[in-house]
C-alpha cells in the first residue's frame, strides 16, 4: 500500500466505532476510489472510466 493511503475512514458515534468509507483501486483504470460504506455489495460504475465495479468485503486470512 502506498504511503499516505488510508484503507478506511472511521467515525466514532454513540460510543461505537463505525466504518464510513473505504479506498480501493479500479481494476479497469487503476485510479484510487473512495467509496462510502453504503455501496458495499452494490454494483456501481467508476467515476473516472465508467467501468463496472462491485464492492465486496474481503476476509483477512491469517
Compact summary:
The chain is mostly beta strands and 62 residues long.
Strand order of the largest sheet: 1-2-3
Radius of gyration (CA) equals 13 Å
- Helix residue percentage: under 10%
Our measurement of the CA-to-CA distance between the termini, rounded to an integer number of angstroms, reads 18 Å
Major sheet details: 3 strands, antiparallel
Going by helix content, strand content and strand pairing, the class is mainly beta
Shape annotation: elongated
Salient structural properties:
single chain, 62 residues, mainly beta, 3-stranded antiparallel β-sheet, two-stranded antiparallel sheet, 0% helix, elongated
What is the element layout, followed by pairings?
Blueprint: E1 8-13, E2 16-25, E3 32-36, E4 43-45, E5 52-54
Describe the protein's architecture and organization.
This protein has one domain. The chain contains no helices and 5 strands. The strands form 2 sheets. The protein has a 3-stranded antiparallel sheet with strand order 1-2-3, with no helix packed on it. The chain is elongated and about 40 Å long. It starts with 7 loop residues before the first strand and ends in an 8-residue tail after the last strand.
Amino acid at each position: 500500500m502506498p504511503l499516505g493511503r488510508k484503507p478506511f475512514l472511521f467515525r466514532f458515534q454513540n460510543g461505537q466505532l463505525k466504518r464510513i468509507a473505504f479506498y480501493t483501486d479500479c481494476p479497469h483504470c487503476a485510479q484510487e476510489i473512495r467509496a462510502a460504506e453504503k455501496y458495499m455489495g452494490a454494483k456501481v460504475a467508476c467515476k473516472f472510466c465508467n467501468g463496472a465495479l462491485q464492492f465486496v468485503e474481503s476476509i483477512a486470512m491469517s
